[in-house]
Give the backbone structure.
Amino acid sequence: MAPLPPGSRSARASGVTAVLGPTNTGKTHHAIERMLSFPTGVIGLPLRLLAREVYNRVVAKVGSDAVALITGEEKIKPRAPAYWISTVEAMPRDIEVDFLAIDEIQLAADLDRGHVFTDRLLRWRGRQETLLIGADTMAPLIGELFPGAPIFSRPRLSRLTFAGDRKISRLPPRTAIVAFSAEEVYAIAEWIKRQRGGAAVVLGALSPRTRNAQVELFQSGDVDYIIATDAIGMGLNLDVDYVAFASDRKFDGWRYRRLTPAEFGQIAGRAGRHMSDGQFGATGRCPPFDEELIEALEDHRFDPVALLQWRNSELDFSSIESLANSLDQAPGHPRFTRAPIAVDQLALEAASRDETARRNAKTPADVARLWEACQIPDYRKTSPAAHYELALTIFGFTARRGRIPADWMAKQIAAVDRVDGDIDTLSNRLAQVRTWSFIANRSGWLDDSEHWQSVARRVEDSLSDALHHRLTQRFVDRRTSVLMRRLRENAMLEAEINAAGDVLVEGQHVGSLQGFRFTPDPGAAGEAAKALNAAAQKALAGEFEARATRVFDAVDDAFALANDGTIRWLGEPVAKIAAGAGILAPTTRILADEQLSGAALEKVQQRLNLWLAQHVKKLLGPLEQLEKGEGLEGVTRGVAFQLAEELGVLDRARVAKEVKGFSQEDRGALRKLGVRFGAYHIYLPLLLKPAPRTLASLLWALHHGGLDNVKGLEEVPHLAASGRTSFAADHSIPKGFYRAAGFRVCGDRVVRVDILERLADLIRPAIAYRPGVSAGEPPAGAADGDGFVVTVAMTSLTGCSGDAFSSILKSLGYAASQRPGPAITVPLVPAASTEPLAAKPAEESVAGEEAAAEMPPETPEAETAPAAEAPAPEPAVEEASAVEAAGEPVAAEETAAEAPAMIEVWAPQRHAHAGPRRHQGAPQRGPRTSEGAEGEKRQPRRDRPRPEGGKEAGARPAGRPRFDKPRPDQQRPPRDDRNRRPGGGFAAPERRERQPDPDSPFAKLAALKAELEKKGKS
């Protein structure tokens, strides 16, 4: 609409009508009704919040196609609107309407925005009627500025009375508590939440969407209290019965000051709506009201407004200096005072000092663009310098390019398009998006302004919803507030259970259902908790029946057994395994509340027992076959039963006597069932995988104290599943539990059963090697006598070294000694003499492999161990010198001159009564092998030729175990101090050279080979 041209006061008063009075007089409602009586009209309102409220009311009467909403940050403009709802600052200038109204005209005296209201009062008119709405305090000025204009005074519809000073805890329901800072508002809201269930929060910086959502909490009765700033006094219509002032001072943009009586009246007047009386009073830290103020508030008598803020609106855009001078012009009326310098003038002053801005502002049009940029509101409140920089950036875009770049705008909006963060963070983003909304709503600043308006509105809406959620989450206990409201209404509470198992009563979370157990929300307490729980139980009764049916019909994959023995159905705990008739026949104990009973309970029990039996059979099925013993007889069947009872890992020492008596047929029958005969254990290699061992651990625990009394139920299966071959032992965990998990306690370590057997396979050939007797290269770790040295392969196999590895060897019956190196000191047999012996180790290996593999060490079990250590470096095995190989003695002087390094040699421990005989637990001589770790078969035994009488020279009699007493020609003489070397240790005893059997096929083969070589040389 075109501003009113300058003229006489009578011209200004033409068509002007004033409706004045206190709050709750229906002035705004009257203005809406008057506007709708004309074909076209516009209403200017003081707040964006109030503009949105009035817009909704008008739309409800005439439809959205006929109404436009124009604010600084929002534009809703249909094709041909008849009515315009706007903030006073954003009232459209390019339209003419029949009716124009300006609300809250007393704000013309406001230091910050007063000059805008004064300009609209003096210059903006409707063609037929201009309605001025405000407080009675404006009556004298209206009469003076618009002589002859009719002024109507409307009385308040209800009484407003003083109710005294009260503590916050004693404030009645339907109370609005007023404070003047966000921090104070939040603090009071927190207190109300703890005492009364929650409060709504209203601040002037909230977006209309957030404010409306918070007001709805109060209006709907979800909360009985609303905590607000003085924004509540500007036409915010609420069903408030009591207004309590928590403070009487506020910051007006310039200083902290006490509210004027008129401002007190504007806020207190929100109490009581329509014909309902209202009350007001002080609370919190607000000083008591004096009698004079109370009387003024009750009678609505306040000092009239004496001066209006004014700023020249006829601006000179010929240059920046001319514009600044026109803004500084003084008013020519005694009732006007020049408004304080505002943010837009300060931004213009900053632009006048900027060289780039001055170069760009060459024409009046450029200066007008600069002034428009300076008038961007400082919603962000970051710093004056940041705001000035934004204004100059916008002016630079519009002056040089004519438009703001789309990518720049997109970057600014994207920076705030996030809904994470707390209340302050979201409020700050909302303030920023208000700035971008204002820019998007400026005409001619963007190529596609409607697009950016919609983008900014979408971001503002999402931030508004997130802020409302955070405010509600922080300041409202919805469960308590909703429950209290429903209880006041004496209504039945509705309960439901969602797909995630959350139990909701009246839409509020009161607990969760996991499987067949209901867990109440720990936040509920008192009488409210009892009512909530009772309502929840009604919903649970039918849910238990339905879940029981779903469990009964579920496929096997829907169930899983956890390490703690819990059976889960679709991830929810429904049962625990319990001991049954046998160790391989566990049963289930249903985890359920009392509501699951009768047929439903039986269905669940039946299904879970069936699944558990199938699960045990799937993972430990071979043990069931061993337990039944089909096809096995006598002692073999007994050993198989013991192996099943020990869950697939049996200490061989326990059945050593029985195993010695096994025939090859007995062994073959057990091997067909997957059994492996190791040096230390009899076990099933296929059952050493993590899943079978975890189940075996649970079954062992069930029969040895119960799941709750066995330590390591979670840790040990986890370590087994991680692929660790050994780990530190916990001495408080039973050794039987470790064995059930597939491990053996060896000193300070716990070693996997199959790894222990592989370690034995590395040690055995090293011990069996005899320098000067055995053919071929020494195996890794070989030393003279019955000893061996530790190699990298051994430590790598167990994943530890040093003291940890030593504890393993000690637990297996080996003892360490220090002596000068190298590892092998006995002169080697010349190459020519070794050929006849080449076949001997292979022959002994074939003949004695069973005895070597099946002879367990007779050493007590160790306790347990520390974590794996880094593998120790393999001791070097030094070859004999060429002189030693030739059998020539080494000069004593040379030996004394050398300083041989000390090495650690391990050998089987000897009992005091055993003499030179090797320890029974030590591996036997010769490169014998046991079955591989994966259960592969050994090489078949080959029959050896024997002379009549059943014996041959140097041969083992039939049936005699390989670990029997050595032959006389292999007997080592006892050590003597006379053989001790000067540097420590013993010299190797003199050995009688062992002659090969001339009748053996290997000797004949060697003789044939020598004859062929002789012919070739000739």
